[in-house]
Amino acid sequence: MKRWISLSARVGLLLSLLLGMLGVASATWYPANRISATMANDRDVTNYKISPNSTTVLYSADVQIAGRRGLYAVPIGGGIGIQLGLTPVDSGSIYQYDWTPDSSKVVYLGQIEALGAPHIYSIHADGSGKQTIDDGIPGTIVSFKMVSNTHILVYTITAGLAIEIYSVRIDGAGSGIKLNQTLPAGGKVVQSDATADGEWVVYRADATTDEDFQLFSVKIDGTGRQLLSGININGGDVQDFTLAPDSHHVVWTGDLIVDERVDLFSWTVDGSGGIEFLHTSGNDVERPLVSADSQWVAYVSDNPIDGEQLRFTPIDSNQSDAASLYFTNKTTIFSFAFSPDSRYLAVIYDQGVIDGRGLETHDILMDTRRALLGLGDILDFEITPDSRYIISRSKDKNDLAVSKWDALQSYIMTDLVVGRSVDQYEITAQGDYVVYRADRNAEETVELFAVPLRYQSNMATQTTKLNGIFNTTNDVTSFQLSKSGDVVYLADSTAADDKFELYARRNQHKLYLPLVIKGQ
């Protein structure tokens, strides 16, 4: 006997299957487990970082001797931790550490007092193959930064009054390569960043005249160095820069044409050309931001009469094409961001003494603006990876709310009692949950929660508590999300106050989406 299913039922079944395939409605939180070593009452885990492939957690802790911090790696699902940096008997410090992009190695900047100056070390995640990868260049290493999609890092050294940058292979093959040119007495590199493809480093330095900052680019191997910003006028400076995700454009601000007036510029990283002058209105420019598709630049323009304006323009055009989101009442622009699909621009701005901070969106494709209503005084926001929703936090109770770009409806995601607040929140890379840290139910007890990201009115009733049973003296102090959707969090244990250990809560998922975009 055949069983007939109605059209509506079949559509519902198909939708349920689709949601299950996407991992939006079918995610499951596995029980939490402690992943750090058991800490004595006077010991703590202090810092931690999840590997890019979401399999391992790196953490710093004084596991064996109080005050002597080592570096440990442990599987995110739990297991035996491996000590990677410094030993309990070492007198020294680890200043910085990070994973290589492929998660195969850990790199750290550390100093053992008996050996003198800090060095950069690399070591496999299983504890093997430790080596020093800097080659004793005169000066003191102060920091390093991984270069995406490569096995190279860029590090900064100080030598007397000079500040310079070098690149070096993480496997230790070859010597460090000086990237900047010879600096004048007291000269310094004050800002540097590598393109997403790992081919170029752009840096800001007073490389020709002390205290006269210009913009340069150089290939990661030290060749092809060139001046991007041209000759400064009347002591003007390049003040800030940002790289486009396409690794092709660099956008910067500076008073290069008229002294004391900050304008906006764009050029190609390789120096081959581009539109140089993006903005001119007689007003200062700050905080340039490039969209994910590298087509648009948003920035804040200071208007002495009406306050700040948020403007945006094509990255390869000129100031005649710039559009302005115009606000009145001496507006202040607090935060803004493009959506991951680069279609929308969202901004938090000052609505005045009575109305407080509002959230407004602009549809770049349709050239329409809409204020998001009914959310209260907005503190900050995040945009989901699929660009469908905005999660915002309001000032009144630090409530979280979800809205669509058209702002026809906004739903509260949290159910905080009076006087409680959300301290931290993140969207999973799959876009299925919002995880937040809050004293939601008990005064002075900050715990960890997850709410499914579905655009409906009863989301708060589906909240999952991620940490264990806490008393009034215990708190979750921070958390991080892996790219696979798992949560790692730091908390003082239920057994003893002020003993911080590391825990993980696994999230069953199926969908991988781009990373979350936040308002800058």
Write structural notes for this entry.
Strand 18 and strand 19 form a beta hairpin. The protein contains 1 helix and 41 strands. By secondary structure, it is mostly beta strands.
Strand order of the largest sheet: 33-32-31-30-41
C-alpha geometry:
flat
**Helicity, in percent?**
under 10%
β-strand percent reads: over 45%
Topology:
Layout: H1 7-22, E1 33-34, E2 45-50, E3 56-65, E4 68-75, E5 82-85, E6 92-99, E7 105-112, E8 119-124, E9 131-132, E10 140-146, E11 152-159, E12 162-169, E13 177-178, E14 189-194, E15 200-209, E16 212-219, E17 226-227, E18 238-243, E19 249-254, E20 263-268, E21 277-279, E22 285-290, E23 296-303, E24 307-314, E25 323-325, E26 333-338, E27 344-350, E28 357-363, E29 368-371, E30 378-383, E31 389-394, E32 400-404, E33 410-412, E34 422-427, E35 433-438, E36 447-452, E37 464-465, E38 476-481, E39 487-492, E40 500-505, E41 517-518
Antiparallel strand pairs: 1-40, 2-3, 3-4, 4-5, 6-7, 7-8, 8-9, 10-11, 11-12, 12-13, 14-15, 15-16, 16-17, 18-19, 19-20, 20-21, 22-23, 23-24, 24-25, 26-27, 27-28, 28-29, 30-31, 30-41, 31-32, 32-33, 34-35, 35-36, 36-37, 38-39, 39-40
